[in-house]
Write a structure and sequence with these properties.
- The complex is a heterodimer of chains A (about 160) and B (about 425).
- With about 160 residues, chain A is α/β, with parallel strands linked by helices.
- Chain A is about 35% helix and about 15% strand.
- Chain A contains 8 helices and 7 strands.
- In chain A, the strands form 2 sheets. A 4-stranded parallel beta sheet of chain A has the order 1-2-3-4. A 3-stranded antiparallel beta sheet of chain A has the order 5-6-7.
- In chain A, a hairpin with a 4-residue loop joins strand 5 (about 115-120) and strand 6 (about 125).
- The radius of gyration of chain B is 21 Å and the shape is globular.
- In chain B, helix 2 (about 35-45) packs across helix 3 and helix 10 packs parallel to helix 13.
- Chain B has about 425 residues and is of the alpha/beta class.
- The chains are: A alpha/beta (about 160), B alpha/beta (about 425).
- The complex binds iron/sulfur cluster (SF4).
- Iron/sulfur cluster binds near residues 100, 101, 379 and 380 of chain B.
Chain lengths: ~160, ~425
């Protein structure tokens, strides 16, 4: 598990996924090629399932396009930990089943090389052995995350004989 | 401690006493989608094949973004939407020609004070002008709402904008909201609710309030909301909504930020390329020549805007170097403007009047710009490439400024015209 640390604020949806591809790419494999292209051109090549992203304030600001959250989820990023998130991205991430951890303290405490672990159920993120609480999600939203996103969750509940 | 508008609305919906940061599930009164309904239908049908929309009477679908269709691909999208509307028995469907969604929903009486409305369009916040809790969502979430009827909200902190005085001369509500966004910054209200307060509100018309609420998202806001008063009730009368179920913050509500504006101190401003918060007074600009002027959109395509523009233009023709495009925001606006002779005056002056819809706003249809060209638009966004060309410039201003610019050929202060 690696931590991809971007020590900056206002990482917008264009840095996460350039607008010029918005109407060209919509599937996971298509998005992956351009994911974080203008922020970290090596990201697509090095990211592994279970990795974590860490960044500053207002992560995901800008347009309402879905590709950043769809893409991060597709490549298997376990969580994005940031000082704060832009609201449409926050919603979109949950809809795609991508865990977001809002913890300025955890970002502050991080130094490169630290182990990072997230326990969404307890609402705890561990950085270099130190625990930080983050606002735990209500059960219903945790279920959405665990099921892999809103539509997957709905598919399951509908099939489950609602 | 008192409660804010957002705390009260979400508290009412969830039956709980809420603090900022709490997450609640609510069933919105309406879910708006537009031409992007076609993509949402795909998500819906692959998730619940053969399924029914949970609350068909809560869907509002407006075809406005690319109307009439610009290509066979757009037309196929529209056709798919019409098929779905028939199959699912969607009552609130407004086909091409009715107008821009954010103008149509209030006109059709779907926007009530205190209502919860979500839409897969970031300018859904416009309905805050009518005291509705209205916010943008993504397409996946719209598909989910069609199936389950509910979604979640996090209780936002609230910024209060306190306004005194009244707008003077040709200074408009657009200048006011651009000034506010310039001061707050493009993320200044991220994840927050914005409440408009103060004695100045009584002097703002519904069209002014819609212009302002519409642009709430341009400072990151989740919602931008006004209280209900006589002006609101007057607009809603005969359109259906119950204007008595209003909701407003307590006098001792806790705001995370308070900003004060004296409307008499404002002057005409523009947002310069390529960000909405890049705001400057026209008086400080040099001679900025333009190739196109676009008067329209959900921000400034209302009857009041068309009238204000003609008041500035008088009998003067559109400058020879300028194409002027006028887009009435809805069929209702178009008809009223036509019956009052306004459309003829624009056409006589040399402008082009287009059918009700988004028109050139999002660069998907007509009125595109060439590389190196400059447009003064009354829209809400001037991001690079927004009108279809990366190497073009979009400057945002009021209807009055658009008119002054159209006849001068450069960005002009409407107060300087006669
Ligand atoms: S007029 Fe422009 S901003 Fe308004 S809904 Fe249409 S495309 Fe969006």
């Amino acid at each position: 598990m690696a931590v991809h640390y971007y020590d900056r604020d206002d990482i917008n949806t264009d840095l996460l996924f350039p607008g010029k591809y918005t109407y060209k790419c919509s599937t996971g494999p298509e998005i992956r090629e351009h994911l974080l292209e203008d922020l970290d051109p090596e990201f697509a090549g090095k990211v592994q399932p279970g990795d974590v992203l860490m960044a500053g304030r207002n992560f995901g600001c800008g347009s309402s396009r879905e590709q950043p959250s769809v893409g991060l989820r597709y490549v298997g990023v376990e969580a994005v930990i940031a000082r704060s998130f832009a609201r449409i991205f926050y919603r979109s991430a949950i809809n795609q089943g991508l865990l977001l951890v809002e913890s300025p303290e955890a970002v502050e405490a991080y130094s490169p090389g630290d182990e990072v672990e997230v326990d969404p159920g307890r609402g705890v993120v561990t950085v270099g052995g130190e625990d930080f609480d983050f606002p735990a999600l209500p059960d219903e939203m945790l279920e959405i995350l665990e099921d892999g996103g809103l539509l997957a969750h709905i598919r399951k509940t509908v099939k489950g004989g609602e | 401690m008192g409660k804010t508008f957002a705390q009260k609305i979400l508290g009412r919906e969830s039956g709980r006493d809420l603090e900022v940061g709490d997450i609640v599930f609510v069933e919105p009164d309406y879910v708006l989608t537009h031409d992007n309904t076609a993509a949402i239908i795909d998500k819906f049908e692959s998730t619940v094949p053969g399924g029914r929309v949970r609350y068909p009477d809560r869907l509002a679908i407006v075809l406005d973004h690319v109307v009439p269709a610009a290509s066979s691909k757009n037309a196929a999208g529209h056709a798919k939407i019409r098929r779905f509307v028939r199959e699912q028995g969607i009552e609130h469907f407004y086909d091409a020609g009715t107008g821009i969604c954010h103008q149509v929903l209030p006109e059709m009486g779907l926007v009530s004070p205190g209502a919860v409305i979500v839409g897969s369009d970031s300018h859904t916040c416009t309905y805050g002008a009518f005291n509705a809790f209205a916010a943008g969502i993504d397409r996946t979430e719209a598909a989910g709402l069609w199936i389950t009827g509910k979604t979640w909200f996090k209780v936002p902190p609230t910024v209060s904008i306190e306004m005194t005085g009244h707008l003077v001369g040709r200074v408009s509500a657009k200048d006011l909201i651009l000034r506010i966004i310039g001061d707050m910054g493009a993320d200044g209200a991220n994840y927050m609710a914005v409440e408009f307060h103060g004695p100045a509100i009584g002097s703002l018309r519904m069209s002014d309030r819609m212009t302002m609420a519409n642009m709430g998202i341009e400072m990151g806001a989740k919602l931008a909301v006004f209280p209900v008063d006589r002006v609101t009730q007057e607009y809603l009368r005969n359109r259906g909504p119950d204007a008595t179920q209003t909701m407003w913050s307590d006098v001792d509500a806790e705001f995370c930020q308070v900003r004060e504006y004296d409307l008499e101190e404002l002057e005409p401003v523009v947002a310069m390329p390529h960000n909405v918060d890049n705001v400057a007074p026209i008086s400080e600009l040099g001679k900025v020549e333009v190739d196109q002027v676009f008067l329209g959109t959900c921000t400034n395509g209302r009857l009041d805007d068309l009238e204000a523009a003609l008041d500035v233009m008088g009998e003067a023709p559109v400058h020879g170097n300028v194409r002027m495009i006028v887009g009435p925001a809805s069929r209702e606006v178009y008809l009223k403007a036509d019956r009052a002779g306004l459309l003829a005056r624009f056409v006589e002056a040399g402008a082009m009047v287009i059918p009700p819809g988004c028109g050139p706003c999002l660069g998907a249809h007509m009125g595109a710009l060439a590389p190196g060209e400059r447009c003064l638009s009354t829209a809400n966004r001037n991001f690079q490439g927004r009108m279809g060309e990366k190497e073009a410039e979009i400057w945002l201003g009021s209807a009055e400024t658009a008119a002054a610019t159209a006849i001068a050929g450069y960005i002009a202060d409407p107060r300087e015209v006669r």
